[in-house]
Amino acid sequence: MAENAGQDTTAHAAISRVTDESHSLSFDYVIIGVTGDLTMRKLLPAFYERFRLGEIALDTRIIGVARSALSTETYRERAREALVEFAFSASQDRDGVTAFLDLVHYVSLDASDRAASGWSLLEALLATHADRVRVFYVATAPKLYVLTADAIAAHGLITEATRIVLEKPIGTDLASAKAINDGVGRHFREEQIFRIDHYLGKQTVQNILALRFANPILERVWNADSIAQVQITAAETVGVGKRGPYYDTAGALRDMVQNHLLQILSLVAMEPPTALSATDLRDEKLKILRALKPMDPDTIARDTVRAQYVAGEIGGKPVDGYLDDLGVAASNTETFLAIRAEVRTTRWAGVPFYLRTGKRMARKESEVVIEFRPQPWAIFSEPPKPDRLVIRIQPDEGVSLSLASKDPRAAGFGLHEAVLDVSYAKAFGTRYPDSYEDLLMAVVRGDQVLFIRRDEVQASWRWIEPILDGWADNIRPMETYPAGSCGPSSSDDLLRDDGFSWKEKI
């Protein structure tokens, strides 16, 4: 590795002309579960892109840990294939890929077993840079988090500069979440624990804060006096794919709402933080999670919808139903849900928040829709549609504001909806980074702003758990919807009863 550190590769030579490499970071990043899909599709490409930008020093080590009996060279070849397939810049940057792979090492080890023989190899590797930032990224099943933390501690690998990253979900219910937090917390202080939710790494999710708090014109109307309803949607056209066995034990509520959608809701609904610090920001998010109106059997029956996709058509091609994708005869796991939620604060009194997520939907889109209240009295013969602010999280990242405008083609004061639209890709003329890029480097810097605190995790489970229990008791029966649709018609009724409709039906 010393020889590699002295090399000035083509990739870094080019980068150094535009980037001050004195700001490059040196660290050891241990990825536990490194042969999994998450590492290949997301983590390694994210590291590579930051390496290309000169943010990662040449003496950094990315150490992969997994049970497979592989050599470092064999793993590097697998990593190269993954980078070419999934990294934005890799196919045109062979020298840069080679330089990056010099940072990658592999240790065969079952990290949840403190008696495994591979620990001595990992200890020896880490001992050569004992004083630098050391990160353990645990990309395994949540049931192994505590065992892994126990083993790391048993081998004396926790230093003052050590952090641990835990992938969502943190548990499967409130009790298991507490057990994980307690177990990992026996060895790591709260400021060393980084609970990752990749939605918080998305630039468009972070931009919710900028839109609200950097633009007083919006923040002054960001309340129940001006806003009639809020919709938060995360729709996918894909099915469960390789995640089928996991997904069937989780479902959409655990997989998407407990973390991603509740985090977005918190950013939309929170009060302005005193400062943009981890403590202040997470304090305000926690207040919103605690302010969610509890779900009882009556509200679960009335204000939730759950469904499972059956065979249908997407993009003109037939697709199978969930049971066929899973290869089972029956399942009680929801692949779609819609929930009407309320935030019991003065700012949001009476404003419904509609959460919706599903697989095999008509379109891939994640967005927040803010619908403003209509004019209290009509002065035009044709009342205008309500103004709407749409924050597009993916795939067409941007923001749009629909306004009523006089139609120059119409006689008199005919109105027409005009849309002010900003595409972030066009506005900034740059590649939109993957969410993991920011998150991985934030851990190295010790910046907790984009990560979830222990009490946030438990507050979200406290709200979600009654819904899980109610669905288990069939308070809200399972429905079906054709693949390629927008979900069951009952999700439309959820809004229609309040006088609203989903954005695509307005």
Automatic annotation (TrEMBL):
The keyword rRNA processing does not apply. Belongs to the glucose-6-phosphate dehydrogenase family. It is an enzyme of class 1 (oxidoreductase). Keywords: Carbohydrate metabolism, Glucose metabolism, NADP, Oxidoreductase. Residues 30-207 form the Glucose-6-phosphate dehydrogenase NAD-binding domain. The gene is zwf. Catalyzes the oxidation of glucose 6-phosphate to 6-phosphogluconolactone. PROSITE patterns: G6P_DEHYDROGENASE. Residues 209-503 form the Glucose-6-phosphate dehydrogenase C-terminal domain. InterPro entries: G6P_DH, G6P_DH_AS, G6P_DH_C, G6P_DH_NAD-bd, NAD(P)-bd_dom_sf. The keyword Ribonucleoprotein does not apply. The active site is at residue 260. It catalyses: D-glucose 6-phosphate + NADP(+) = 6-phospho-D-glucono-1,5-lactone + NADPH + H(+). The lineage of its organism: Bacteria, Pseudomonadati, Pseudomonadota, Alphaproteobacteria, Acetobacterales. It comes from Acetobacter musti. Substrate binds at residues 198, 202, 236, 255, 359, 364. Its EC number is 1.1.1.49. Pathway: Carbohydrate degradation; pentose phosphate pathway; D-ribulose 5-phosphate from D-glucose 6-phosphate (oxidative stage): step 1/3. This is Glucose-6-phosphate 1-dehydrogenase. NADP(+) binds at residues 67, 168. Pfam families: G6PD_C (PF02781), G6PD_N (PF00479).
